Amino acid sequence: MGSKTRKVWVKDLQIGGEAPISVQSMCATRTRDIDATLGQIALLEKAGADLIRIAVDNVMDVEALAEIRKSTKARLVVDLQENFRLADKVAPHVDKMRYNPGHLHHLDPEIPIQQKVEWLVNVAKKNGSALRVGVNCGSVAPDFLERYAKDHVNAIVESAVWHCSLLDKLNFTNYVVSLKDSDPRKVVECNKRFSQRRPDVPIHLGVTEAGLLPDGIIKTRVAFEQLIPRGIGDTLRVSLTVAFHEKDEEIKAGRQILKDIAEGKFISVPDFGKGLNIISCPSCSRVENTAFVELAQEVKRMSSDAKGHDIVIAVMGCRVNGPGETDDADLGLWCGPSSVTLKRKSETLGAYKYDEVLSKLRVELDELIAHKVS
Length: 374
Hints:
- Helices cover 39% and strands 18% of the residues.
- The protein is globular.
- The chain folds into two domains: 8-262, Dihydropteroate synthase-like (TIM Barrel, Alpha-Beta Barrel); 277-373, Sulfite Reductase Hemoprotein, domain 1, CATH 3.30.413.10.
- Helix 1 packs across helix 2 (59-71) and helix 7 (184-197) packs parallel to helix 8.
- The protein is built from twelve helices and 15 strands.
- The relative contact order is 0.11.
């Protein structure tokens, strides 16, 4: 498998250009915990990870990254998210950097986006780094949301296409693009539209916040089984909410899905996506309290009686995903270091301790069910 896009190189790994589809994951440990992060890198490598992503939030993480680089030959990717300013500091220690177009406007708003992208490209060129333009459903750039207010999928696609044009004008071609949503149907539509517009650009596939097992794998399969056979997809990640010592499950799931598709084993899931849908972000180094994973599991158990109702519950583990990506859920939990913000759509209902929020969620869920039944 593999598409006929141009070739992108991440160190010695070819992405696109009919190369086999690569599989990646992200460390869930705090980057500054060097020993734990190296342990997780080893766990993911053993499972067959082609690329391993880590997060860098501050200078302490950059210093830790430099030490981590000395102790591993793994192909490392840094997720810049809201920290694009750190690119020049992290680039010497990694093989690829991911930036989110929707986060570039947060810092230094007086500087044009084009100028920020040009700076990132110059850093990448200087260090021989690849780039990923990572567009997420919950953090689409405001100007594209405003321009395409009636078509969220188009807002995602147009943002990605526009950034591709910026990179092309800067004579930089060593990049891939991802267009992710928590709804596998939207993932399919986004990637089909983008592939038609830019068939030359390699695509990183993923369903963001796919969630707990087994639903997280099923959601991801629903998208991948419709895209990969069409030649769409050059590298992928299965984003699961799992305990830190089980992060290799993402690699195992990705490999199994690829194997099944190659062998023509498609898993049909009639009516999947109807009824209760629990969205939870993958355990990663930005999770501000490890109790987030257990809370997501408890939410699934507690709400099992609501499976026949069309209700979306989102459980997010950090400040990056928390605010925006709970807004569209019927009920959302944004997990901070010591408390959980409970939301109804974009409305904040209050902040509660981890051992209190389930009972509050239950009250809201019962009220929502009663409203739907009446």
